[in-house]
Write a structure and sequence with these properties.
With 138 residues, the chain is mainly alpha-helical. The chain has six helices and two strands; from the N terminus they run H-H-H-E-E-H-H-H. 72% of the residues lie in helices and 4% in strands.
């Protein structure tokens, strides 16, 4: 991408309808994120005008939600972008939170695998009992 095309991409604005369509969310979702301080679109009358930064933030919000971060955690990480330290603090805090979330998800996976194995064993037992009951009834 050339510097000129990158600049024009940064200058592009989006309507609520465009972002809803692109990210498969509802207008209510975008308004909720705005109410929570996660998005800050400009306004022309009643119309919300989203910019490149809002679009990028929405993408990060949805990615964070998908991996299980709370809105408060997402807001904390996004708000650190505004510090004047070259994003160092934001990146460090985000990395710490991501590692913690990764450990939690890995633990959940272990627990889910154990639950699946237990359910498979129980299903086998119940199927055996049902076969015995069916054979006796015949």
């Amino acid at each position: 991408m050339t510097a000129k095309s990158e600049q024009s991409a940064r200058d592009k604005t989006y309507s609520i309808t465009e972002l809803c369509r692109e990210f498969d969310v509802t207008p209510r979702t975008l308004r909720f994120y705005e109410q929570k301080g996660l998005l800050a679109p400009a306004r022309r009358g009643w119309t919300r005008i989203f910019n490149y930064r809002d679009r990028a933030r929405l993408q990060l919000i949805l990615r964070g939600k998908r991996v299980g971060f709370s809105l408060e955690e997402i807001k904390e990480m996004l708000d650190l972008y505004n510090l004047r330290d070259g994003q160092r603090t934001q990146l460090q805090v985000s990395l710490t939170k991501m590692r913690e979330r990764l450990v939690a998800l890995q633990q959940q996976r272990v627990e889910i695998d154990e639950a699946i194995a237990d359910l498979e064993r129980t299903t086998d037992v119940v199927e055996g009992m049902l076969r015995q009951k069916t054979a006796k009834a015949s």
